[in-house]
Amino acid sequence: MTSEREIPGNRAPTLTDVAKLAGVSVATASKAINGRAEVKAATRVRVLEAAEVLSFAPNALARGLLSGRTGTVGLLTSDLEGRFSIPILMGAEDAFGAGQISVFLCDARGDAIREMHHVRALLSRRVDGLIVVGSRTDARPPLTGNIPVPVVYAYAPSADPDDISITVDNVGGGRLAVDHLLACGRRNIAHITGEASFQAARDRVEGATAALAAADLSLVGDRPYFGSWDESWGRAAARMVVGQHPEVDGIFCGSDQIARGVLETLRDLGRDVPGSISVLGFDNWEAIAAHSRPRLTSIDMNLQRLGTIAGQRLFAAIDGVSLPSEEFPGRLVMRESTVPVG
Amino acid sequence: MTSEREIPGNRAPTLTDVAKLAGVSVATASKAINGRAEVKAATRVRVLEAAEVLSFAPNALARGLLSGRTGTVGLLTSDLEGRFSIPILMGAEDAFGAGQISVFLCDARGDAIREMHHVRALLSRRVDGLIVVGSRTDARPPLTGNIPVPVVYAYAPSADPDDISITVDNVGGGRLAVDHLLACGRRNIAHITGEASFQAARDRVEGATAALAAADLSLVGDRPYFGSWDESWGRAAARMVVGQHPEVDGIFCGSDQIARGVLETLRDLGRDVPGSISVLGFDNWEAIAAHSRPRLTSIDMNLQRLGTIAGQRLFAAIDGVSLPSEEFPGRLVMRESTVPVG
DNA sequence: CTGAAAGCGCTTACAG
DNA sequence: CTGAAAGCGCTTACAG
């Protein structure tokens, strides 16, 4: 139970109210509350009690005005809808949550005008820094205008290599995927993926091809199958690949949704997964990957951790420590759709 | 191209800098920038040009300190991970995005301590109001302590009926679902749903049962099938229901994931959907509902709109207008899994 | 150890 | 129409 006390005008209690109640000056009240050493113990106690009674919370605006630091940060996303932003956002929130930083969330909805509008608003609120979260891994134009605070780009790198960008290593992810299929004893590996206009798709192809080349192999069909990121493409492409290349014994898919479609077609065709063909997804989207039959092995890009790192980088930059850009490796999450064969 | 100009100490330009450059007093500069009438046109132009040159952005902290309004709002979620929070959050962001409000995002991760910590921080930043977004529709304890600003609860209502809560009408959603199946000519309707511990599950059962009763019918099996919210329960339950009640011709599912599992089993069993059985999901989760075979008809709870309404309610409350709580109806989204029979 | 004073960046009566 | 002054809530030298 917090006892309550009438404040004239029903406004939030100020340090002046606390000082008055404790019978000291505002200067002394300030020192007591901020744990400065030069306050007599008894005085401190009286002030803290008064603050408690009034449920006093120091006005962060006034503090920010004085110190030049607000303890706030802007998080600029281009689409909240997209699944990729959310874990990054959670990770960033985590990085700040522990300390005294509060996060402004702004969704630009993929609109450059709206983004500029938000940036202006954030700067007028004197945020200490900005994190810009993209929705695709393709490089994006850097923020324009006079940005007087540090900026960290997450997921989508800035096109300006001098900016700090924390990104996902999709080439490495593709390599990881194919290396796992090879480790399972597969030799005839196809790659069914999404739109070729996505850097992410092209990077994964590059990694997959490199891993195969290192084993003196190449993709079944001698090329990746580009299409769309969804299940229906997975179903259609799988039917085609199996029809044209019956020897296929491993399929690396560019997304879990594609993989889900691939699994359905293989099931329809009576092909045994993982007995006769291994299937591997990408994204490790729990709702999709963990509930298919069989449950899907997938590559997880550790997006939450990426968000945390981005937050920590911004922290450092605010303190004047400029750390370099970084590419983030993924990890394999084994489920039932891949298994070593004799 | 914004021309840039040296500001001593590399700090953000202040109104004083602008005034100096324009050759007027800060008072006049302030009036010019804020569009007050009592400024000579020529003076105004000079001030605005100076502001432009310096890329001056008025310090919102200083303004907030003066006016007592910060133009900020706290958005408190209990889990960002959950799909339900995101659309609500987007809707709320929308409601504010148009105006001059910025949103602090805080994720309490379902932890009451963490929530209190965030509330304290937000109050010390003098937010003008709070939106509390729950992750389940079960009522939650109201925020504790001395909250001197308006609070709106979204999705999860506050247990205190005097608080403003914007919620989803799950009873109505259940009724909507069954009414549609009835309209399709189905008479033997089963209900497979998630955990009975969820208010949402129980409410939908209530709505479904009421709609059936109005047509002098009852649920196949004379009870709902409670289980978990995922596909595997949908698969298992469908097998059981069809086995025990072969006459079943409509299945209302408590989630799209359950429905997805139901569809798979019916496919395995060679039952024709929607020809011989109609299947209806709940949530209208695009990634799940729009990619099944056949594509799934579902109930959409309009969560984004719910978020927008919550934002508008908070607006009103901040302006001293207290609107009542509101329950939000869902809507039917037709796809291929339901169809009228002759 | 305590308090009066100045000042962070702005706005708003109030003189002139 | 313009500007000097007071003040929003706090912190930080600086006297005492």
Automatic annotation (TrEMBL), chains A, B:
SUPFAM superfamilies hit by this protein: lambda repressor-like DNA-binding domains, Periplasmic binding protein-like I
Alphabetical list of CDD domains matching this protein: HTH_LacI, PBP1_sucrose_transcription_regulator
Top-level lineage group: Bacteria
Positions of the HTH lacI-type domain: 13-67
MF GO annotations: DNA-binding transcription factor activity; transcription cis-regulatory region binding
Keyword DNA-binding: yes
Coiled coil: none
Keyword NADP: no
Pfam families assigned: LacI (PF00356), Peripla_BP_3 (PF13377)
Keyword annotations: DNA-binding, Transcription, Transcription regulation
Gene3D superfamilies xref list: 3.40.50.2300, lambda repressor-like DNA-binding domains
PANTHER family associated with the record: HTH-TYPE TRANSCRIPTIONAL REGULATOR GALS, LACI-RELATED TRANSCRIPTIONAL REPRESSOR
Protein name, as recorded: Transcriptional regulator, LacI family
Native species: Micromonospora narathiwatensis
Lineage, highest ranks first: Bacteria, Bacillati, Actinomycetota, Actinomycetes, Micromonosporales
